[in-house]
Every structure is written in structure tokens, then in C-alpha cells.
């Protein structure tokens, strides 16, 4: 099906697959429907949509929320495709379009759903959710995790400190296992980067914004968030994209370099998309260099969540895995988290305090497979289990014996 956006009376219809260039078409259709035609109740019809990503949908959330703040009501006709409808609900897009009908999502899959933030506490909670997503879904190292955490934190800080957005900011993150990449989008309905920088040419403003030194506090590297985040994405072989007012800047791959333009239709706010490929252990040192001095964030998610001393890395199983104990799929995520913590080159302590039961499939997927992967000696010396209920211990022992006989195939 050909992709296009149509507006008629109070209905905006989205057909086919939604791509990057459709974002501004959707913004234009919203303006025409609400401002030009004076409609106060808008229907967003995605029934014939057959593909969409957070790169387009997340930036719509602050725009729609701002219209709602001004008294405009929205209705959503979800896609006919059942799987795509589940995405609308699981990603929280349905909730922010029509909260009267759709409850907030509690889905824990390969993404952190769209979340709204306004202050430091909200931002810290979201950062922790994204870091946890990466540990559970992707193969990473501490250096890369620090670079991602710094980038996302800085971009959210820009919303709080500069955007002047009446609806705060919105963020969503997705982990892509097939390319070991994390992508996050941060959007607001604020004054825009060109207005904040007081530069009339919006394309020029965005290019200037990713230069080193466009900063409010040179002693703390504060304000270098866009520059540093662009470098993290670019040097990892990922993608980077900014929409702000009439300005558009994007990097699809390092070979193409930076492309930017002055667009006819404005995006009334700022949206930053950052896709970071994981695999370069030196990414932090390469990307976060200010005045050619490497910047190493002093406190990170690993320290806040798992480190109890200089040589102790503790995974609280009840806190981190309580939703996973009943399934093999949950076991895959916890095994990924344990692997990533083992990459810190310290023994990992698994604290089972408060855990009374786990499923046999979970025990097999985590402990049976890890035992075979690592071998008996490494498993026993690098993984320590504490406060294990006798029933849970029996399930783990049984899973290890059975998996040792089967090997790590899927039989």
C-alpha cells in the first residue's frame, strides 16, 4: 500500500508504512484540522497503517498533549493489524492520544514505553529503566553503558533546562537484538533549539548545536549534550536525528556524514533520536572528549544498582527478576543481565532473599545454560548464590544436572 497522510474534516487518515518524512506531514495535518478548520475533536485513523516506529510516533506525543492542554480532544482508530495495535498499546501511544480509553502500559518487552517526564526524579527513574532494558536485552559493557546513560541524561536535561515545554518531555527506548543496538527518542513541545540559540536559520542552528563548546557551563561539560550524544551515535556506527522548528538534521551512517535542511513545515518543539550500536569497548573514551580530555561520568547505573563494595557486584533477584520467575522468556533476560555483570570481571552475587519459588524453565534457562556455557569451574568461582530457599535450590540443582546431560541445544 502506498504511504500517505490525508486530512478531511476532523479526521486524519494514515495509510501504509509511516516513515521519517511523515512526521511533518502529520504535524501539518494537525495544524490544518485544528487551526485552519477549527475542529476541537480530532480523529486519528490508523486503521490502514501497516508499519510505524517510535521515531515518528514519540515526537507526536508532546504535540498532541499540548493540543489536549488547550482543550482539543482526540480519538484513535487503531490499526486493523492486531500486532500493530498491540504496539500502539504497549508503547503507550494509545494512552497519550486518548487516556480516557487506554490505560498506561506496564508491558516489559524489548522497549521502555513512551513516558512523560518533568523533573530530576522522573529522569532518574527513566534512566534506570533504559539501563535495565539494555542489560536484559543486549550484550554490552560498562563503558558503553556509561556513554548511553550520559547521552540520554543530557538530552533529557536539555528539555528541563532549555525547552520551556508546557507539557514537559517524552522519552521512549527500544532494544534491537538483531543489530545489538539501542535507540531512544526524546521529544518536547517547547520553544525549539533555534529560538533557544537565537539563530534565525533553523538548519544552521541545528548544525551549530552539535558543535563542541555550545555550552552553558564549560567547567562541567554541561550543555555539550547534543555534541556528545551525536558523537556517541556517530562513532558507534549508529544514527542521529534532530527535528526542531523548521530545522532537520540527521546522520544515517558515518559514510554519508551530516545532512540537514530547512523544512517548510515546522515541528513545534524539539525531537532528538539517537541510535547507538553496542560493541566498541572504547566508545566512552572516543566519544566523550571535551577539549580533547576524556570525560568519565563519576557515578553510573552499575554503581547505584549493583555495587556494594570495591569487589562486590550483587544482583537482587527479587527486585530485578520477580516478573520473570515463571517463564523461559524471562530467564533469557536474566541470563543476559548476569552475563553483562560478569563482564565487569568481578564475581557476581545472586541474592535470593524473599524468593520462594521459580519455575523449572526459568531455572534451566538461567542456571542450566550458564553452567554449560561457563563450565563447572568458572560457574562455581564466578557466581555465588546467597539466601536460597531449599525448594529453589533443588530446582536449580536439578536444572543444572539435566542441562549438563542435554548440552545447550534446544532439545
Instruction: Compute the CA-based radius of gyration.
Output: 23 Å
Quaternary: single chain
CATH topology of the largest domain: Heat Shock Protein 90
Counted beta strands: 15
- What would you give as the CATH superfamily of the largest domain? Histidine kinase-like ATPase, C-terminal domain
Structural class estimated from helices and strands: alpha/beta
Mean model confidence by pLDDT = 92
Unreliable residue stretches = 215-222
Name the CATH class of the largest domain.
Answer: Alpha Beta
Biggest beta sheet attributes: 5 strands, mixed
Q: Distance between termini?
A: 41 Å
- Number of DSSP helical runs: 16
Written overview of the protein:
There is one protein chain. With 411 residues, the chain is an alpha/beta fold. It has three domains: 1-107, STAS domain (Transcription Regulator spoIIAA, 2-Layer Sandwich); 108-301, Heat Shock Protein 90 (2-Layer Sandwich); 306-406, no CATH class. It has 16 helices and 15 strands. The strands form four sheets. Strands 1, 2, 3, 4 and 5 form a five-stranded mixed beta sheet that branches. It has a five-stranded antiparallel beta sheet with strand order 6-7-8-10-9, sandwiched between helices. Helix 1 (22-36) packs parallel to helix 2 (54-69), helix 5 (120-137) crosses helix 13 (328-342) and helix 14 (360-374) crosses helix 16 (390-406). The protein is globular, with a radius of gyration of 23 Å. 44% of the residues are buried. The model is unreliable at 215-222 (pLDDT under 50).
What keyword list fits this structure?
alpha/beta; about 400 residues; Transcription Regulator spoIIAA; globular; 3 domains; 15 strands; five-stranded antiparallel β-sheet; Heat Shock Protein 90; single chain; 16 helices
